[in-house]
Write a structure and sequence with these properties.
The protein has about 280 residues and is of the alpha+beta class. Helix content is about 60%, strand content about 10%.
Length: about 280
């Protein structure tokens, strides 16, 4: 478990809990949720210190720290815990973390600051607000993580397409680029072959796509779906083989288009079955 630094956590997402926006931040590889934002959903005037002074809260934090934080100061924690329940006892998050070297809480001042807690602790804090609020925040957090995984999958497929593009361009270099041509002439050949794949899969050359989408940056591949990136990766490998075999560009385009239609139909059916489960 990485000890939080003195820098404010970097927000990685936001949860909308029935109109209450709650920031989610990364501390190392762990997710921390903003208690300051969550507190807005609790009726009445309450403070995080009201929750922290509770003996049950301290017991839970102590167990969590014992499991995940070998640098936790048990001596100081025992002193604090023994005061819990006393009418005069009150302790702030920053004082608590400084005295105990706790890793589950981060408190930072400033415009983008606030008190953040490791998700395990934040869910317990949500229960202090209300049982209903905890159910909603757990559900929304799971939805956020699922969305993150989808983006990771898209990025992985995009990187795979880039790797296969290198195989594709190598086949072009070895088989289609004549010796002693200029860099500009070479670029024309590469662009021409890239458009073979663009037309086979997307039905448009790069220039046609740009003219049809003047407000979008990048190219078709930057805005492709995961299924399209999977298919594109396959087409690049197949086209490299067809180039090595000496097939003319017009024949390769027809073959690649037929393969793209078949693969996208299969990928679409797989996706449909997945969503129907």
């Amino acid at each position: 478990m990485q000890k939080p630094t003195n820098m404010p956590p970097k927000t990685s997402g936001e949860l909308d809990i029935r109109g209450t926006l709650v920031r989610v931040a990364k501390v190392g590889d762990e997710d921390y949720i903003c208690l300051t934002d969550m507190l807005k959903a609790k009726d009445g005037e309450f403070f995080i210190t009201d929750w922290l002074r509770n003996r049950n809260t301290l017991e839970y934090i102590g167990i969590w720290e014992r499991i995940y934080n070998p640098a936790f100061n048990y001596g100081e924690f025992a002193t604090i815990r023994n005061q819990a329940g006393l009418h005069s006892f009150k302790i702030g998050v920053q004082e608590f973390t400084e005295r105990t070297n706790a890793a589950c809480l981060v408190s930072r001042a400033g415009r983008y600051g606030g008190t953040f807690a490791h998700k395990d602790i934040a869910f317990e804090f949500a229960m202090w607000i209300s049982a209903e609020f905890k159910i909603y925040i757990v559900r929304e957090f799971q939805r956020l993580k699922a969305r993150e995984q989808e983006l990771v999958g898209w990025s992985a497929k995009r990187e795979l397409a880039k790797i296969n593009y290198r195989i594709h361009t190598d086949a072009i270099l070895r088989n289609l680029v004549p010796p002693a041509v200029s860099r500009a002439q070479t670029s024309v050949i590469y662009a021409s072959e890239a458009d073979v794949l663009n037309v086979a899969l997307f039905g448009q050359t790069h220039r046609q796509w740009q003219e049809a989408n003047p407000s979008l940056k990048g190219n078709q591949r930057d805005h492709a779906t995961v299924d399209q990136l999977i298919c594109l990766s396959n087409l690049e490998n197949i086209n490299a083989v067809l180039i090595h075999d000496g097939l003319p560009q017009s024949q390769r385009l027809q073959k690649l288009n037929a393969i793209a239609i078949q693969q996208m139909r299969i990928l679409s059916e797989v996706g449909t079955r997945k969503y129907l489960k």
